[in-house]
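Title: Comparing notes on inverse folding

I've been comparing how different people in this forum approach sequence design from structure. To keep things fair, I'm posting one structure and asking everyone to reply with a full sequence. Here's the target:
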């Protein structure tokens, strides 16, 4: 027994140092997107590659295999830690260290080139580095798949146990109901729009107020600006970003609520799991379930919109809508648009379907980087009925491909599906959610999320995490029923 415990303890000591170094690498990535001088990009790329070399060496240390074989777990937590360490160890062994370092270096450089290409509407400036990212990720996918589907292999980084065929089936189930709902909404009475001036600092002040109400702890985090909003970190250092458009306060406020959903998940994991494989969200699909339920099913609910309407009028004066109901309609307007992150709940998943098909084709070699803009524009016009007008409204709008996140996009829709299941369960168990939201207080729902899901971190695999919280296997039904009820009311 003593030797067995020693093997587990030694393995976990090794793992905690690895997790700490990975946190440093993540914080370096946060700095690159928020504060790093533009001219620092080449050096930062080398720094990221060096960190990845160290992490890869630690993750493939042959002693890990010996410790795993010798360890005999004594409880659920130890079993889960060993499961996750073994999964990551066996996966990392398949990827050569020089390839892992080169991916880190190239994606660090590509991120800056994407930002400049997007700013300058210069698609051609981004294509060469995108081609290099795609080449490297194809190579990694092939190494991981060992003869199987390379896209499936890459998906495991974001949704362990997920498969492209299952995602495609999910999209097939959702598409017809979403398209029909969009048609009915677009044929209905147009929603009102806000008007007025919304100063940057006032938006950010309100964003911080809302973030705290949704449970974000500023003692262990901070809010900054970025081109593409994101959340970064885990445990005692979890940071969020937003962006500000002085003509559109919803961009800032709802991006903030979305990222707080991610951050609250990380901040609320049981402290006993800090710097272990269980000390973070279990998958990006489950992560997205938090951000989408916070942003949409709480933040865009009629009850919360009633409170937000009054608060915005207090801060900004007249905002161009005459009633709480009109404000609710403005927040949930169904409109044709280019930008995924600004899309309404009806259109959002249709954006994800487009990206899923294109990046799957890229990794499988059915599409090359130099054809991505034309393929995107053709598919977008077919799906949404109007043409892309410029690259920043097309394939340059998202940061994901520049940083190599192929296999990530389908988890956004999976997160919406999970969110539908979670909020249906929360509303079944709690009667006071809307009454609290009407006062600007999301805490009954966010506390339920913490107690039933967030505190467990990576203790259970993704599907088990949702099933443990809701009591039922996840399905698309609750999400589609929620959307049809909500938007059927808004667009009768």
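Reply #1:
Here's my take.
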């Amino acid at each position: 027994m003593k030797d067995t415990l020693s093997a587990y303890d030694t393995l976990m000591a090794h793992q905690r140092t690895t997790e700490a170094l990975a946190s440093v690498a993540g914080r370096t990535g946060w700095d690159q997107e928020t504060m790093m001088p533009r001219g620092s990009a080449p050096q930062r790329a080398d720094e990221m590659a060096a960190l990845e070399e160290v992490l890869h060496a630690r993750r493939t240390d042959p002693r890990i295999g010996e410790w795993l074989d010798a360890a005999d777990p004594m409880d659920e937590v130890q079993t889960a830690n060993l499961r996750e360490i073994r999964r990551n160890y066996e996966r990392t062994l398949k990827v050569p260290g020089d390839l892992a370092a080169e991916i880190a270096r190239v994606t660090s450089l590509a991120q800056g080139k994407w930002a400049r290409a997007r700013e300058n509407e210069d698609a051609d400036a981004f294509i060469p580095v995108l081609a290099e990212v795609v080449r490297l990720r194809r190579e990694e996918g092939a190494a991981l798949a060992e003869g199987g589907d390379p896209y499936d292999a890459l998906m495991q980084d974001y949704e362990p146990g997920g498969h492209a065929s299952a995602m495609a089936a999910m999209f097939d189930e959702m598409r017809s109901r979403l398209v029909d709902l969009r048609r009915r909404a677009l044929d209905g009475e147009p929603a009102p729009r806000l008007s007025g001036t919304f100063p940057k600092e006032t938006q950010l002040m309100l964003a911080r107020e809302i973030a705290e109400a949704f449970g974000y702890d500023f003692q262990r985090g901070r809010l900054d600006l970025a081109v593409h909003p994101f959340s970064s970190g885990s445990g005692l250092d979890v940071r969020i970003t937003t962006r500000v458009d002085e003509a559109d306060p919803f961009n800032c406020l709802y991006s903030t609520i979305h990222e707080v959903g991610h951050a609250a998940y990380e901040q609320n994991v049981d402290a006993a799991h800090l710097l272990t494989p269980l000390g973070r969200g279990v998958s990006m699909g489950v992560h997205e379930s938090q951000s989408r339920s916070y942003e949409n099913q709480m933040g865009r609910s009629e009850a919360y919109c009633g409170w937000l309407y009054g608060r915005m009028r207090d801060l900004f004066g007249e905002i161009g809508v005459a009633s709480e109901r009109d404000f609710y309609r403005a927040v949930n307007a169904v409109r044709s648009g280019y930008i995924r992150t600004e899309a309404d709940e009806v259109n959002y998943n249709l954006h994800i379907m487009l990206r899923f098909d294109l990046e799957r084709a890229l990794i499988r070699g059915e599409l090359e980087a130099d054809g991505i803009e034309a393929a995107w524009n053709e598919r977008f016009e077919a799906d949404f009925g109007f043409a892309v007008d410029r690259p920043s409204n097309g394939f340059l709008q998202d940061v994901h491909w520049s940083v190599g996140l192929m296999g990530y996009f389908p988890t956004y829709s999976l997160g919406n599906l999970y969110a539908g299941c979670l909020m249906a369960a929360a509303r079944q168990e709690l009667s006071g959610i809307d009454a609290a939201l009407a006062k600007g207080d999301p805490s009954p729902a966010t506390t339920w999320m913490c107690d039933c899901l967030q505190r467990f971190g990576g203790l259970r695999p993704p599907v088990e995490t949702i099933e443990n919280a809701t009591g039922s296997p996840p399905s698309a039904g609750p999400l589609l029923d929620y959307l049809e009820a909500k938007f059927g009311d808004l667009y009768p």
